[in-house]
Amino acid sequence: MKDLQQLVRPNIWSLKPYSSARDEFKGEASVYLDANENPLRDNYNRYPDPLQWTLKAKIAEVKGVAAESIFLGNGSDEPIDLVFRIFCEPAVDNVVAMNPTYGMYQVCADINHVEYRKVALNKDFSLNADRILRATDANTKIIFLCSPNNPTGNLLDKKEVEKIITSFDGIVVVDEAYIDFASEGTLMAELDNYPNLIILQTFSKAWGLAAVRLGMAFASPEIIGLFNKVKYPYNVNALTQEFVSKALDNTAQTKAWIDTILKGRSYLVGELSKNKLVEKIYPTDANFVLVKVADAVGIYNKLAEKGIIVRNRNSVAMCGGCLRITVGTEEENRSLITALQHLQ
Ligand SMILES: *Cc1c(COP(=O)(O)O)cnc(C)c1O
After folding, report:
1. Ligand 1: distance of its center to the CA of 83 in Å?
2. pTM for this structure?
């Protein structure tokens, strides 16, 4: 890896971040007259902890990492955008990503005026590390990987991922939004070995909290420090911090949900494989299944008429004819299967 300073935009490296009232006085006091808050309301009238230490302490325990290696943001969308703003000089630098993959990486690249280089996955959606590495040049700051990948559903081969991390001298972002549904493959234990690795996870999927908007980035304390410098001072509101803190007290619930979703996934795969409209079911390590069907647009529309909405991925690279189906409740899964039986 290059020196961090060589990778970071010079204006960000030298940035003096906004210093809030909560940053400047951190102890306990009896009279707070420092933040122009309204003292008359007795709850939610105070600015929240800008670095969310109470929440991070709980996440640190659940994930087995130091609290200093955690960044929390308004969904994963926030750390995805921040890595561009921290590392990529607009109109100069570029990033490399596998294709097909999650659409937000390209949207953030476009917003930040950063060239986005797409590298095709193999036909079976596996990762070719050498092809990714060949697409990089001196101005490549970040490589984006997604495992399990969206919309294909497969886990990437850990050896290929680690080859990219160890061979590339810039930043590697590995998006593990769906890792809770995979039986292996997280790079969390490797965080200390790879100073250029940023792992993304989220409360939106297995934790069932898409509405509260909380995403996590795990990286070296130095990289986390850069995130903290660039983020909005109060990027995670007090309601979200408290709500997710409570959810973390019941990890057994999340585990039970994951079990149920995995059973639902097996049911869907089993039933879909009996349906004549289904040409191929791609192997999945996520809470969705990508299926190739005879007529994706036609089937999408007919399901929608029955009030069943799946994701039409027909126009995504290498996904022609494909629908992406999220695992639902037992009843929802049965509705989908019944509807598809009637269409064949
Ligand atoms: C759903 C998803 C996320 C989660 O995004 P949030 O902003 O945390 O809700 C991140 N990455 C991928 C690949 C996803 O599919």
Report:
1. 15
2. 0.98
